Structure formats: structure tokens, C-alpha cells
């Protein structure tokens, strides 16, 4: 007979056995770690997930007791971590850790600088991303380039946003730079890029607007408003506003009341503009007199009408105050910024007729340039409280025109006054297109007014260049000449005004003159078969790569557009001579892991140039490390790649070389290195 075990006794035995097993495991764990040294730490494991965690400090996990423990292990087992003392190139690092006798943990932040790495940590996703660079790697497809179309990738540029742009002048409509001087000045390269950027944006928006008008008839969000449209209920006319005998032209003049001669206010509850936000203000007029101005009142907080700030664009000269400058003034209460237009004032004094006024203002950039550095709180208000969508739009409460007291009638004519905003998915508004048009035309007009008789646009500040004598004021840049030509060619195509094309043709002059003669041409190692067009005209030449290619693009653009055979021939000859030199010297710019910015390490300063004018550099072990190769940072390396791909699309003779080099340099951005010996 079989004796059955009673269930109750069976369960008791099972529980006792399980308890003994658990005690045995715990005893082994305790005895295993009882004799571990103090620097051995048991690493935690989080559930069934990978337990590797990485704090923002890149130095492990900061526990409640204030100790800094290493990261958890990669697998699901309990691990032991041994603290190690570690050094990197004779520099002591924060503690490193050994796990599993094989895996070594080193604080990533400690080696980021040494190995030029960029890391990002996402604790929520439990991921760490380590890259060579935080610069976007250029696509293999080249930027489309047409001599009269968008310029490279410049539709993505926001020149006004750059920290060394002081402001955009109200009367001339071009940026002033502080790049090489604390005193703001007009920098031809920056003005050319400003114009090319706005031209490229205009070209893209025009194409988008045409496409939208033919493919969609649905209602779109309001992207702009015509402030001179009397049919709109939110536009308030003054009794002093009268229609001129010319159509669509309004005259504002001094009358019984000089307050708000032409104004709109978004205060009424039924106004379409009460909650509207804008970015661009465009005004066109003529015959303004000294003292006339246009005023915009904007709100720092839409919910607080008392938080207003006023932007004024005035036909006049800045007052001679020691704390102000000649371009704008700020009131003592920091409520009002006045942008001065001295050209308008001087013209009205000399009684010149038909002085045109063109304003194309980016309200956000004007506010940032005037108030941004001193009131970052205002900047945060703009991007959070005032702009709920962080889109850079500004609440405009009031726009008003005021007539000056000078002249027989004061005031002047106004043909156009609009507010607009950037387009997103909808069709671009007319104001946005007019804004970009006005800006690239203003830049081109600056090049007409400021071209010297030798064809150059001379730069009025000194340029300190490492391992070279200081470049004295009055120098000419091949990059500035080339990009100036590219802008003028496009504006000529837009306006059909030969004045712009003639200016572009005269700009070839410095390419034929040596640096010693005030031009931009140098020769690599004094070999006449290798001419180079210098961005910075040093002696000996510096051979900056990106500036050379930009100058070549300008020569190409002119050769494609000029209707004059002799101009096409001359620009084509310069273009081909530059390409041949670039083809020969391009391998010298390859570092095996990136590219060089220039070739100063190949063409060092000669003995007679090593004078006291060159500032001594700090030395390392008796050598000046600063005399070594000038590696291009990743943003410039990416630019080199894009430039080479562009050349491959317009230069068939060297297309294979340009493409192969661009592909290899792209691989460098992914961590690839050239082979060792």
C-alpha cells in the first residue's frame, strides 16, 4: 500500500527547504563582500532593464550620502567596481572604475576636450550619443547653384542674428560689423552675405508663393496687413491725411494737430489686430523732412498694456550725447529706442528733391540689438510670455507717422506701409517678400555707393593675422569682391539696371593686381603658375580655402551673366586660373582627419617679416604651438565640403577631384581617419 503525504506536511517541508536555500545564498553574498576593500562598490541593477545610467555630470551617480558612485553595470548581474587612479596625457582625471575585470569606465567629460568629442545624454531614454562634431554633416547632393538664382545655402543664413552685427542701419538698410573692431563699421563681406541671404530667401519664397497660388485655393492665415488700405476697419485715418494727386500715394503734413497724423491702433475689441503678432515692418516713401518719423509701439507682455516699448525711425541726426552713438539712442527709462536716419536729414537740409525713404525692419532683431545685451530678461519675455509659440513674433499695439517741423509743409509722401510675419506652411505674404526685396536691394546699392575707382570695396579697419604682419586699414578681400559680384549680378538680373552689372565688372580689378599693389592676387611659394585670390591680403599669402572658393563662385557668376564678350572672357580666364591652382594645392589642405583653414604652415613668414609687429605666441617645450597648422573647425570643414560639391556641379574639368575630396572629408566628420603607414 502506498502512503500518501498529507498536503499540509508537504507544504511545510517545501517552505523550510526554500528558507534554507535563501539563507545559503545570502550567506555566500555576505561572505563574498565581507573582505572587499573600501574602494569596491556593489553596483545596482534596475529591474529587468539595462542598468547603465549616466548623470549630467558625466561622473557617475551622486547618491543621497553625497558620494559619487560609478555608473551601474551594463548587464543584469551584480557587479563589483574597483576605483582606479587614472591620467590622460599626464593630466590627472576624476576617478575611473574597473568593472568585471575588463570594462573600464572613464568620465566622458574629462576626455571630450582632448579628443574633440561632443556627447549628449538622455536619461529618460537611457542613451548616450557621442559624436565627432555637433555640426550637421553636409548631404552628398550639392546645393543647386545658378548665377541668377539662390546663392548656395544662404537662404538658411540669418546674418542679422550674428553677435558681431551691431545693428542694421535705418537709412542705408545694411548691417554694421564689430568683427575686427569695437567701433562698428560697414564690412563688405558681411554686407554681401546679408544681401545674398535675403536674395536667396526672396527667391525661395517667390517660388513657394507661385506654387501655392496654383495648387491651393483654401483660406490661409493672415500673414500680412496693408496699413494704407482704407477698407480695413482697424486702420484709423487722421483728418490731416489727404490723398495726393498721384495714385496710391498719401501725404502726411503738419496741421492743427501733429499727434498721430497717420496711425492704426489695435485696441478695439472687434479689431482684427488685437491679438495679432508681427515680425516685419515695411515702409516706402519720399520727400521726408528733418524731424519726420514713424513710431511703432510694441508690448513686452500681451496681457499687460503698460509693458510697452517704442521703436522710432527718425529723419534726423543723433543728439551729441556721450553715452549714445550716431546710429541709435535709448531713452533714460529704457522705454524708447530711436534709430536715426542722417542721410534723410542731410538731404532735406540741402533741399534735394525726391529723397526716397525705404524701411524694411525686422522688429525682433531691432529689439534684440538695442535691448538684448543689457536686458536679457526682456529677451526671455519675448520668447516666452510675449511669444507663446516661440516664433519670434511681436505684439504691435500702435503704428504712427509724425510730420517734422521743417520744410514748407513738413512730413512727406508715403507709398507703402505694411506689417508681416514669416510664412510657415501657408503661402508667403506680400510683406515678407517685400521685406527681403528691400534688404537685398539696399545691400546692392551700398556696393554701388562705396566702390572705389580701382574696383575694390576697401575695408576700413586693421586685421590682426597670426604669423603675419597686421593688415593695415584700406585692404581688399577676394572673398568680399567675389560675393559682392555674386550679389550685383543677381540684382542686375532682377532690376535689369546695367549700373549693377557695370559695378560687378569693375570689381574684377583687384583680381589682376598683386597684394603688394593693393589687390588680392598672390602666388603660392612665389610660383607664377599658382595664383591665389586672398581673402586676407597678407605677405606672404595665407591661402584661406573658403575665401578662395567664394571668390571663384563670383567669377563664375559674372562669366555666366555678362552680355559683354570681353567681360565674359576676362572673368572666365580668372575663373580657370584659380581652379587650376586650387586643383594643384587642394591636397595640402587635407589633414588626414579634417581640413586646414589655410596654408600658413606651408608658407611660413620669412625672416625679414618676423619683426616686432608680429605678436609672440606662447610656446610649449621651446616651440610655438601656434605656428603649427591652422586646422579648420568643424563648421568650416563642413563649409569646405559644401563648397567642393558646388564646384563639382559647375566645373566639369575637375569634378571628380572635387567630389572625391568632399566624400573623404565627409567621412572624417564620421570619425574616419586616413590610414597609418
From TrEMBL:
Residues 451-605, 622-666 form the D-glucuronyl C5-epimerase C-terminal domain. One of its GO terms (cellular component) is Golgi apparatus. InterPro entries: C5-epim_C, C5-epimerase. Keywords: Membrane, Transmembrane, Transmembrane helix. The chain crosses the membrane at residues 12-30. The keyword Transmembrane helix applies. Pfam families: C5-epim_C. One of its GO terms (biological process) is heparan sulfate proteoglycan biosynthetic process. GO terms for molecular function: heparosan-N-sulfate-glucuronate 5-epimerase activity. PANTHER family: D-GLUCURONYL C5-EPIMERASE (PTHR13174:SF3). This is D-glucuronyl C5-epimerase C-terminal domain-containing protein.
Amino acid at each position: 500500500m502506498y502512503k500518501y503525504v498529507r498536503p499540509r506536511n508537504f507544504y511545510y517541508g517545501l517552505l523550510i527547504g526554500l528558507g534554507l536555500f535563501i539563507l545559503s545564498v545570502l550567506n555566500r553574498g555576505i561572505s563574498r563582500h565581507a573582505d572587499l576593500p573600501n574602494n569596491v562598490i556593489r553596483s545596482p541593477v534596475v529591474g529587468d532593464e539595462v542598468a547603465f545610467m549616466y548623470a549630467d555630470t558625466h561622473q557617475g551617480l551622486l547618491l543621497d550620502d553625497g558620494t559619487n558612485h560609478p555608473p551601474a553595470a551594463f548587464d543584469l548581474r551584480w557587479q563589483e567596481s574597483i576605483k582606479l587612479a587614472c591620467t590622460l596625457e599626464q593630466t590627472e582625471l576624476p576617478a575611473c572604475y574597473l568593472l568585471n575585470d575588463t570594462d573600464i569606465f572613464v568620465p566622458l567629460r574629462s576626455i571630450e576636450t582632448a579628443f574633440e568629442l561632443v556627447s549628449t545624454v538622455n536619461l529618460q531614454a537611457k542613451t548616450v550619443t557621442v559624436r565627432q562634431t555637433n555640426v550637421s554633416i553636409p548631404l552628398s547632393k550639392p546645393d543647386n547653384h545658378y548665377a541668377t538664382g539662390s546663392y548656395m545655402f544662404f537662404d538658411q543664413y540669418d546674418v542679422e542674428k550674428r553677435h558681431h552685427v551691431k545693428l542694421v542701419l535705418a537709412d542705408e538698410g545694411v548691417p554694421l560689423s564689430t568683427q575686427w573692431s569695437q567701433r562698428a563699421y560697414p564690412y563688405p563681406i558681411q554686407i554681401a552675405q546679408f544681401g545674398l541671404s535675403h536674395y536667396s530667401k526672396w527667391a525661395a519664397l517667390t517660388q513657394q508663393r507661385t506654387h501655392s497660388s496654383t495648387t491651393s485655393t483654401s483660406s490661409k492665415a493672415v500673414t500680412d496687413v496693408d496699413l494704407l488700405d482704407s477698407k480695413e476697419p482697424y486702420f484709423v485715418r487722421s483728418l490731416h491725411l489727404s490723398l495726393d494727386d498721384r495714385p496710391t500715394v498719401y501725404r502726411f503734413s503738419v496741421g492743427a494737430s501733429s499727434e498721430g497724423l497717420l496711425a492704426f491702433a489695435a485696441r478695439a475689441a472687434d479689431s482684427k489686430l488685437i491679438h495679432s503678432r508681427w515680425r516685419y515692418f515695411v515702409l516706402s516713401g519720399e520727400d521726408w523732412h528733418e524731424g519726420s518719423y514713424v513710431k511703432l509701439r510694441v508690448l513686452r507682455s500681451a496681457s499687460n498694456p503698460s509693458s510697452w516699448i517704442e521703436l522710432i525711425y527718425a529723419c534726423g541726426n543723433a543728439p551729441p550725447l556721450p553715452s549714445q552713438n550716431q546710429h541709435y539712442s535709448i531713452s533714460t527709462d529704457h522705454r524708447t529706442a530711436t534709430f536715426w536716419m542722417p542721410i534723410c536729414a542731410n538731404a532735406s537740409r540741402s533741399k534735394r528733391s525726391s529723397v526716397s525713404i525705404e524701411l524694411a525692419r525686422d522688429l525682433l532683431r531691432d529689439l534684440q540689438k538695442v535691448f538684448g545685451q543689457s536686458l536679457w530678461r526682456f529677451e526671455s519675455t519675448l520668447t516666452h510670455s510675449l511669444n507663446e509659440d516661440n516664433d519670434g513674433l511681436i505684439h504691435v499695439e500702435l503704428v504712427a507717422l509724425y510730420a517734422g517741423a521743417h520744410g514748407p509743409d513738413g512730413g512727406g509722401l508715403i507709398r507703402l506701409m505694411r506689417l508681416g510675419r514669416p510664412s510657415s506652411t501657408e503661402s508667403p505674404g506680400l510683406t515678407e517678400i517685400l521685406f527681403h526685396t528691400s534688404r537685398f536691394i539696399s545691400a546692392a546699392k551700398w556696393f554701388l555707393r562705396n566702390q572705389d575707382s580701382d574696383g575694390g570695396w576697401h575695408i576700413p579697419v586693421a586685421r590682426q593675422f597670426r604669423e603675419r604682419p597686421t593688415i593695415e586699414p584700406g585692404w581688399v578681400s577676394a572673398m568680399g569682391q567675389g560675393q559682392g559680384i555674386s550679389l550685383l549680378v543677381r540684382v542686375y538680373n532682377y532690376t535689369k539696371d546695367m549700373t549693377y552689372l557695370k559695378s560687378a565688372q569693375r570689381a574684377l580689378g583687384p583680381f589682376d593686381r598683386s597684394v603688394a599693389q593693393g589687390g588680392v592676387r598672390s602666388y603660392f611659394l612665389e610660383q607664377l603658375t599658382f595664383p591665389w585670390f586672398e581673402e586676407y591680403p597678407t605677405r606672404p599669402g595665407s591661402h584661406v580655402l573658403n575665401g578662395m572658393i567664394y571668390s571663384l563662385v563670383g567669377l563664375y557668376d559674372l562669366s555666366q551673366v555678362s552680355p559683354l564678350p570681353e567681360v565674359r572672357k576676362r572673368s572666365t580666364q580668372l575663373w580657370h586660373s584659380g581652379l587650376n591652382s586650387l586643383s594643384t594645392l587642394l591636397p595640402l589642405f587635407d589633414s588626414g582627419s579634417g581640413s586646414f583653414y589655410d596654408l600658413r604652415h606651408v608658407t611660413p613668414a620669412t625672416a625679414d617679416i618676423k619683426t616686432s609687429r608680429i605678436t609672440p605666441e606662447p610656446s610649449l617645450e621651446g616651440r610655438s604651438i601656434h605656428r603649427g597648422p591652422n586646422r579648420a573647425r568643424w563648421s568650416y570643414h563642413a563649409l569646405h565640403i559644401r563648397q567642393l560639391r558646388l564646384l563639382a556641379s559647375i566645373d566639369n574639368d575637375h569634378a571628380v577631384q572635387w567630389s572625391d575630396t568632399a566624400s573623404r572629408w565627409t567621412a572624417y566628420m564620421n570619425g574616419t581617419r586616413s590610414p597609418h603607414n
